[in-house]
Amino acid sequence: MKPLTRLVPAVVLTALLLPAQMSAQAQIAQAQTPATALPAAWTGARLATATYVILDPQMAGPNLLGGSDQTSVLDAMRRDSGNALKRRYPGATISTDATNAGAIRVTPVLNTPSALLPWLKLTARLDLTLPEGDRVSVGQEFTLWDVYQHRAEAANFVYDQLAQRLP
Length: 167
Hints:
six-stranded mixed sheet, alpha/beta, 167 residues, 6 strands, single chain, Rossmann fold
């Protein structure tokens, strides 16, 4: 009997791998900045009614994806991070006007693992810059397997997890 080999699209694997590394970096950043050092403007009430501008997503780490797969992942990061914020804060506004001085600027970041192996982790992070200039990062690690299990909803899963960590 011949062993069965399953092929998984690179875009799915990339979506799974990137969030785990990002979250590790976010946790490191959080460990370096004690919770008492959070900006005074960083409140649930403010975030719930804020205007957010989603900036161009960033991928860090080895480039494990080809051109169109990487574009698909970056598009999903932009779209689904904004959707996760809107689900977390229904009163918030997601804007495309990057010149809006009162908006919180959000950069989705994904740190990829060294290879596409299910037990490796990727880190997903949201870097938020408040209008006053203060920066806060929220991140979490995910195994590629955890992300893969969500298939087409992988980015939604990752950014919903991050949004739940916000006040």
